[in-house]
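Quick question, first post here. What does this chain look like in 3D?
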Amino acid sequence: MRESVELPPPDGPGRDAVMAQLNRILANHLFQHSRRYPAFLQHVVQKALEGAADELKERSLGVVVFKRSAEYDTSADPVVRNTASEVRKRLEEYYSDAEHARELRISLPVGGYLPEFRPAPAELTPEPPLAPVAAAPPSPTRRWIWAAATLAAVAAIAGAIRLAAPQPAIDRFWRPMLQGNDSVLVVTETLMAVTPPRTGEGDPPVMEAIDPKLFISVQEASAKLASLLRGYGKSPDMELARNVALPRLRRGPFILLGAFNNPWTRRAVAPLRFYLELDRERLIRRILDRRNPSRQDWAAPMGVALQADYALIVRAPEPDTGTTMLVIAGLGERGSGAAMEFVTNPKYLASLDRTLPKGWDRHNLELVIQTKLVNEDWAEPQVVASHVW
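> Answer (accepted):
Ran it through. Tokens below.
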């Protein structure tokens, strides 16, 4: 296979524009339910922007992206070629949607792994209308009356359309979170503790602290959230939970990511109808319902293969500060991914107009989300319980 090493043209789209478009593509359903395709596309785009086209060779990609050994047989293991082919198909399908037809183009030409970036296509110039049959020109007074009447009719129709067409559910859902500052505080916690097995009877347990703080900005969920907020003219202000004090939460609306690895989340939802519980004795994570305490099935046991995962989504005032908060908390990693998809995808938020009481967008709400797991990845997120007050 020929492997192109030419750099993108210097007069092409800028890095920020390309990365913004990449985030939009990765947030689309075509790339949502896979790890391989987003990882491949993100890697080749970043390398192209860095001018590192010489690193976009089949073997190099196999080693870096898919963790193959440096000596692996590319002819026997076509993971790079197969992935590239599928990514090409998905990019073509993405841009075949009229909704994306006018966006900046990212493509992966056949014969290599160096992506191309092209500006959004210019609007097509309409064909000139046919010349009307000659007629006697109206008088200036009649022309003025006709123009004024036309403008009034157009204004009336536009007003009627605005009144008849409600604002999209995604806009109404996010409106309370977009008040005030130019940025929205996003509180997350990535500290994880792992206890490896003991090597001998006399050895004390060793706790290995893993803090992937440096990777917050590239996490898929963070990319989706950042893309959505920027679409509303806001920027995400990412901060670790352990670095946040209560006064910081009083400054404006904020978002809490994570469940049991974010102490602010458990504290915030503790007094609500749906709340989080960690059964340390049996190692089970749960969402519980105060109105139905016997319900125990919204659970994700640790250390076993799950058939489904769950998440809690809350948009309500934080109990101690009264500041509007949005909680996105999965019991497990897959539940968190499904919950993030739910709150950033217009398709899923539109379902709230069908399932929740009228005017839900002007009230506080809690949603319990379920997602079945397919090949260890999340499937469609569904609301299995809700509370509006």
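The radius of gyration is 26 Å.
Confidence is low (pLDDT under 50) at residues 1-10, 123-127, 191-198, 203-218.
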